[in-house]
Specification:
The complex is a heterodimer. Chain A is of the alpha/beta class. Chain A has 11 helices and 6 strands. In chain A, strands 3-2-1-4-5-6 form a 6-stranded parallel sheet, with helices on both faces. The longest helix of chain A is centred in the last third of the chain and has 29 residues. By secondary structure, chain B is mainly alpha-helical. In chain B, about 80% of the residues lie in helices and about 0% in strands. The radius of gyration of chain B is 31 Å and the shape is extended. Classes of the chains: A alpha/beta, B mainly alpha. At the A-B interface, α2, α4, α6, α7 and α8 of A face α2, α4 and α8 of B.
Chain lengths: ~280, ~260
């Protein structure tokens, strides 16, 4: 068996070991890569910058602990930026296994920024059937959420005075790693025509570039790269910037593997027919 | 050591050991991996059941009913009775769904299901068409001729005829100031969309011009799949890095090393 054939049939565990080394080495010896800001992330930043003290935004966070690593930096950056602008945050989590995680994240950032529950932020929590909940919130937040996450009467919270539905908000930003992003577009933005922004898991990002083009969403933060861009814009270098630097090294390793695999395929006698069949 | 810090430490150790159990699948399938996998399913199901009970059954049905009875009961006024109906009707419909477990009473479950399907269709059809068909279609109506060419074209006979035809149909929009680069970008969008749609048009055999257009459509789709693959890799690598950050920084550095130093 030739060298290239042997490379083609390499044990997958060798690839895993190299990938793990690609993660661990930049973690131990940090490298800094430049971050170029894309227009879709800039647009989210500009929208957030336009907030005035007292404005209220809805942050709809829909992800669970399995996606924490990718999504948490986005939630943290957006909340910090909103608070920095003096805005108030109304939050929901329409993904059942994420409700506690989102509560912890909201509390941690709010405590860090010295914000008080009920006055500067409110967490409505979860109700089933996101499509119907999103639609019902367009009439009144109290319809699906007569009580908040902590079982307080929604009306008893000072921040909720004067907040009736989407019309009372400056915009809605969803940090989403579920099909809930589609629900926000279809059952929220479409019937009620409020400004909607996305911060989505990278795996979903390509699906929503068409919605950026149609201006159904005003901006999008896509995955860790988007989160790192947002951190660069806000000058708050945090988790996303650090993880993105490590991730860039892993990307180089993966691109290397793809190149080696293709070269091995071609040099070991493989021929590619037009139409994609070998 | 407080109870809170102790539960924190136990939680970190559990999370770390379960992460390693899941990673062990990379070597080969094993009982540790199976245990961790089943644990995820069980914990998620249990957590979901409790969350559904507290957020829906308790918040939307039990608590309002209890409050109502404490404040004079549902029959004390018409308004109260209306509230009772609002709270009880969904609960009854929900209970009717459970009738499907018995084959004899299964028909009872069809009533709430029919209502649910009707509401879902009514909500879904118009909003879906508007969100995913009409709006994206509108976004492909883009100027593909640069402004300088548009001015020149309007002086030619064909251009003049087109402008006149536009006036007849009420398209009186001024000439769009499209740069050459923007026009080229728009051409890629319009052409790419057209070719990809032709690929999915099976009423005509993919031969000749239709075949060549469909082939371009395949390339457009492949580029789309490539971009999606790239983003998927990025997403999964983020999670991998996140887990290693937890193992290295939270488990090893903050817990294990501190414990060893103390020892």
């Amino acid at each position: 068996m030739g060298v290239w054939k042997r490379i083609e049939s390499i044990d997958r565990r060798v690839i895993f070991v190299v990938l793990i080394a690609g993660v661990l080495l930049p973690m131990i010896f940090p490298i800094n890569f430049p971050v170029a800001v894309t227009p879709e992330v800039q647009s989210v930043y500009n929208r957030m910058e336009s907030l005035k003290p007292g404005d209220v935004i809805l942050l709809a966070c829909e992800y669970d602990p399995s996606l924490k690593a990718e999504m948490e930096p986005m939630t943290n950056s957006l909340m910090r930026h909103a608070y920095k602008r003096g805005a108030k945050v109304l939050a929901t989590c329409l993904f059942v296994t994420g409700t506690k995680l989102i509560e912890q994240e909201l509390k941690a950032i709010s405590d860090e920024m010295g914000k008080k529950y009920g006055e500067d932020y409110v967490y409505l929590g979860y109700q089933p059937y996101p499509a119907i909940v999103i639609n019902a919130m367009g009439q009144d937040f109290r319809n699906p959420f007569p009580k908040d996450y902590y079982h307080n009467d929604t009306d008893s919270l000072p921040m909720m005075k004067g907040i009736k539905n989407y019309g009372s908000l400056k915009f809605v930003m969803t940090v989403n790693a579920t099909s809930g992003a589609d629900y926000w577009l279809q059952y929220g933005r479409e019937p009620y025509q409020f400004p909607l922004g996305f911060a989505v898991a990278a795996v979903m990002a390509t699906d929503y570039y068409s919605q950026l083009q149609t201006k159904q969403i005003f901006g999008m933060i896509g995955g860790m790269k988007g989160a790192a861009e947002y951190e660069a814009l806000t000058n708050l270098k945090g988790d996303a910037t650090r993880i993105m630097n490590i991730q860039s090294v892993v990307h180089i390793v993966i691109v290397g593997f793809i190149l080696i695999g293709n070269v091995a395929f071609l040099l070991s006698g493989g021929r590619l027919k037009l139409g994609g069949r070998a | 050591m407080t109870l809170e810090s102790l539960t924190g430490i136990v939680g970190v150790w559990l999370a770390a050991l379960l992460t390693l159990a899941i990673f062990s699948f990379l070597f080969k399938d094993n009982p540790l991996y199976k245990f961790a996998e089943h644990l995820v399913v069980g914990v998620s199901a249990g957590y979901t059941a409790v969350a559904l009970y507290t957020s829906s059954v308790r918040s939307l049905i039990l608590d309002p009913l209890a409050k109502d009875f404490q404040e004079g009961g549902p029959f004390s006024s018409l308004d109260r009775f209306e509230q009772l109906l609002l709270h009880v009707t969904p609960a009854v419909l929900g209970l009717m769904m459970w009738a499907r477990v018995s084959p004899k009473a299964a028909w009872v479950g069809r009533l709430p299901l029919a209502l649910f399907l009707g509401v879902a269709s009514g909500l879904n059809i118009p909003t879906y068409l508007q969100t995913y068909v009409v709006q994206p279609l509108r976004a492909t109506l883009l100027p593909i001729v640069p402004a300088s060419w548009q001015t020149w074209l309007s002086t030619t006979f064909a251009g003049h005829a087109l402008v006149s035809l536009g006036h007849v149909f009420g398209f009186d929009a001024p000439v769009a100031s499209t740069s050459t680069l923007q026009a080229l970008n728009n051409l890629v969008i319009v052409g790419g969309t057209f070719c990809a749609i032709v690929y999915f048009f099976f009423s005509v055999e993919h031969k000749g011009a239709a075949g060549k257009t469909a082939n371009v459509g395949i390339w457009v789709l492949m580029i789309g799949f490539g971009a999606t693959f790239g983003f998927t890799v990025m997403s999964r690598v983020s999670l991998l890095v996140g887990r290693f950050e937890f193992l290295m920084n939270v488990w090893l550095q903050d817990n294990l090393l501190k414990l060893l130093h103390r020892g």
